[in-house]
Amino acid sequence: MPTSNATPRDDLDRELQLGPGMRVQRLVEAGFMIAAIFAQDLRYAAVTFVLIALQALSPRWALVARVVARLVHRRDGHRIGDLYFDLDGSRGACAISTVVLAAGIALVWSGQAMAGYILLAVPTASLLMAPTLGFCAGCWFYVLARDRAVRRGWWRRARDDFADVVIARDDGPDQPQLRP
Asked: Which of 105, 110, 108 is nearest to 49 (CA)?
């Protein structure tokens, strides 16, 4: 029986990447935001703010996703429908969302309720799109800003994550028509 050199952190990352945890996390956050907008009660938005701020500090602090990962284990291998979990991208998206949520909450508290709730609708839409469509606006903005900062020399590129998820292999039976 082969021994695994995986650390508990690697196991958690793998559970978050391949399991349904991050989808459920985003849906819970979106649910609280929808409740905040329709009930016009910022207490619901505060729950999402705390959940997202924790993930901005460390993407492994996705509390709902961790509970789901304990209850529903990942399946082996990757599928095209897997939600991509990139630690840096998730952290950057949550940092951007934290700023937008704070600005929206501040607008509502300052008496600009309409502008505040419109601003709160932006991360809400992204929280709904991430698990359903696989597109995270915060991740996109983070990657765009990171790439521009790297090109200008403000940030040193640490790695390219283009090979994190193998969808098709040259030596596998998934593409027999491409073999000579």
From this structure: 105
